[in-house]
Amino acid sequence: xxxxxxxxxxxxxxxxxxxxxxxxxxxxxxxxxxxxxxxxxxxxxxxxxxxxxxxxxxxxxxxxxxxxxxxxxxxxxxxxxxxxxxxxxxxxxxxxxxxxxxxxxxxxxxxxxxxxxxxxxxxxxxxxxxxxxxxxxxxxxxxxxxxxxxxxxxxxxxxxxxxxxxxxxxxxxxxxxxxxxxxxxxxxxxxxxxxxxxxxxxxxxxxxxxxxxxxxxxxxxxxxxxxxxxxxxxxxxxxxxxxxxxxxxxxxxxxxxxxxxxxxxxxxxxxxxxxxxxxxxxxxxxxxxxxxxxxxxxxxxxxxxxxxxxxxxxxxxxxxxxxxxxxxxxxxxxxxxxxxxxxxxxxxxxxxxxxxxxxxxxxxxxxxxxxxxxxxxxxxxxxxxxxxxxxxxxxxxxxxxxxxxxxxxxxxxxxxxxxxxxxxxxxxxxxxxxxxxxxxxxxxxxxxxxxxxxxxxxxxxxxxxxxxxxxxxxxxxxxxxxxxxxxxxxxxxxxxxxxxxxxxxxxxxxxxxxxxxxxxxxxxxxxxxxxxxxxxxxxxxxxxxxxxxxxxxxxxxxxxxxxxxxxxxxxxxxxxxxxxxxxxxxxxxxxxxxxxxxxxxxxxxxxxxxxxxxxxxxxxxxxxxxxxxxxxxxxxxxxxxxxxxxxxxxxxxxxxxxxxxxxxxxxxxxxxxxxxxxxxxxxxxxxxxxxxxxxxxxxxxxxxxxxxxxxxxxxxx
Length: 717
What we know:
Elements: H1 5-94, E1 109-111, E2 126-130, H2 136-147, H3 150-159, E3 165-170, E4 174-178, H4 193-200, E5 206-207, E6 211-212, E7 220-229, E8 235-244, H5 245-252, E9 261-266, E10 272-275, H6 278-281, H7 299-308, E11 314-320, E12 323-332, E13 337-344, H8 345-348, H9 350-418, H10 433-479, E14 493-500, E15 508-514, E16 519-527, H11 532-550, H12 555-567, E17 576-584, E18 589-595, E19 601-603, E20 609-611, E21 633-637, E22 643-647, H13 649-652, H14 663-673, H15 682-697, E23 706-713
Parallel strand pairs: 1-2
Antiparallel strand pairs: 2-4, 3-4, 3-8, 5-7, 6-7, 7-8, 9-10, 9-13, 11-12, 12-13, 14-23, 15-16, 16-17, 17-18, 18-21, 19-20, 19-22, 22-23
Helix pairs in contact: 1-9, 9-10, 11-12, 14-15
């Protein structure tokens, strides 16, 4: 069955429209859903990465803060301990035992036993008791002498509330205390650790381990004590000051702790002697030794303990009862103790956990919103598709009749043109857009033909220019010394140079040549501008300076003569900055002159470098001038192993994406990375500077030619 073109066009439009909308609908919906899921996935990943980074940052910050707090707390604890130790030292200096004591015991000094009644205000009284078997009559003079310390003890205890009790135990068995405190039955000070430890310390301060006090409600106590000796170096007694473990915990090691942070203090044996509620958890009696919990009995805590006992500050992560803890620790060197601040990892990461929960909630909300948006977009898209399909079918029906034949002709003509027959002409006289389209095709074919011809001409011209530029580059490069080492038969001097143009050809130059057996002429220059004009000006300047140097002129004369030659008929007012010098290889003396160029760097054999201080001079080329106007000669000496580094401003004025210049400071640092000391390859130094300049530029296009010349004077062998 044959169908008319109209039916075919309508059928084709219908099928194409249905197929197009179907495919577009399918892929659009699928891609929207996939993009939504991908966005959610990547959003979740980014959120988790952010949470992970936050956790790492919080843990790192917590460690730094805990260590800093531990160091501060250790410093505070050390100051408190030193203050108490100083009080004991001062008291030891005031203590005297003699026979000049008053004949009776003052009223404010009370004899006490375990059953003695409390006097009311304990701060107004001192007390004493006797060890078993000691007669009061025998020690009464000693007690009278000790009673004179009442006001001093009272003053110190009043001004230092951390000191709970101050006392002296004598070798005769007397214990004298302030403030008043009842004594335990059978109490003998000479057997207590604070007494025996101080006696063994031979006049040095002694800090006891925690023990049960016999004087104050069976309290866990640490004592700072010192032995007292007579003129005959015999032990007379021991003076001590008590500090409760509770006070150490509250007033020494916890003043800087924050919420969720706990502190503890260990001794040199790894035992916890203060911190938390240790004073309540450890129980015992005054006549028993206090068994403090030890960190050395737990594997992971033992490792922490050993680090703390190294008397260094640091951090660690440990697990206690299955809970990860972050620890910062620092030494209390006054007593060889160490303090630690501990905080749970969960407390540290609490903000990150909260953020993670918020991210999860936001993800659920976003998923719900995305599903609703997809459903709404699907409905809109389907309605729009049906509407567009109806419009397409209607338009196709209206245009099918008079479009079919011209379209076939147009297609045939277009195929001809597309096949390369650009002289083919479409002849359609429909009086509508089809005719305009055919005319457009004809015009397009004509324009395309002209474009192809012009494109071929432009390609040939570009190829010619590139060939000329390549030849110019090769010519310019060949004019500069390129063989290194340039003087393989000489050991008294090494030379290396490089010139990197900003365009195909540049305006920088360098040159070096022996003008006789012992004198090396060298120069570095920078022509204003870039490209072929600058290269031609450079070639002229180089030829002039080399010729004048070989004719025996001095550096100042070389610059003066070259300037006057260049200035003659220099209508473009181009100029070149130049630094030139002559090195005498017998003496190391460099005679130089400057024509407005950057100062070179003198590098000594030990790697130290400095910029050469010299007269600025004037660039060559703008106008003629007299010999004695601007070009001044100077000299400096190179010792064997010293070098001179000359360069153009393409090095120091290289910029990075932030328009920051490389500068002379960075260039000096770059030279120090691989200095041209004896035994090294000069190419390594120059390549290192170039690499560092590129790293500074960080992809920024080179705006100026870069030239570097490095000469090392080795001296006569």
